[in-house]
Design brief:
The chain is 34% helix and 19% strand. With 158 residues, it is an alpha+beta fold.
Length: 158
């Protein structure tokens, strides 16, 4: 019997979909979460070293999101990927190495659970190799997301 997958369809496709760039989910997520123009957000990532058609690494996007006004919420669950994202983000935010393991992790959750539990606010949520925007309980992204995708880390904009 085939495994049933649930998909969360975006309420809006957001910005950055004109085909001039790809692998730009981190840029699109920032633009969608903050309401800033895509071009402005792309320039921030370019200045940090991101090349067009290349994704951004955790040590890059974590710092950019926090500098743009996000609060780093932390990591979810106990997977190696979640912890790796947490470790890199903590390092670029200046958390002393001895303190990184002392920070609390959140209970692991799926993207569907995160959306359900966060009906108000603007978030960038990192799942397996992808950053997406969750804004007021709906996804803003270029394509449907698996509801069963594991959340690794998240950032909240006030």
């Amino acid at each position: 019997m085939a495994k049933v997958r649930s998909y969360l369809y975006p309420a809006s496709f957001g910005v950055g979909l004109d085909g001039s760039d790809s692998n730009n989910c981190s840029v699109r997520a920032l633009a969608n979460a903050t309401g800033k123009p895509y071009e402005h957000c792309a320039k921030i990532f370019e200045q940090a070293g991101r090349k067009k058609h290349n994704g951004a690494k955790a040590e890059m996007f974590g710092k950019i999101y926090v500098e743009a006004g996000a609060k780093y919420i932390g990591y979810f669950g106990s997977t190696n990927k979640a912890y790796t994202h947490h470790w890199y983000t903590s390092k670029v935010l200046g958390v002393p190495e001895a303190e990184i393991d002392k920070q609390d992790s959140h209970k692991g959750c799926t993207l569907a659970t995160f959306v359900k539990n966060n009906p108000i606010g603007s978030f960038i949520v990192i799942v397996n190799g992808h950053g997406t925007c969750v804004k007021n309980g709906v996804i803003i992204d270029s394509h449907p997301q698996r509801g069963t995708a594991t959340v690794y880390t998240a950032f909240k904009f006030d």
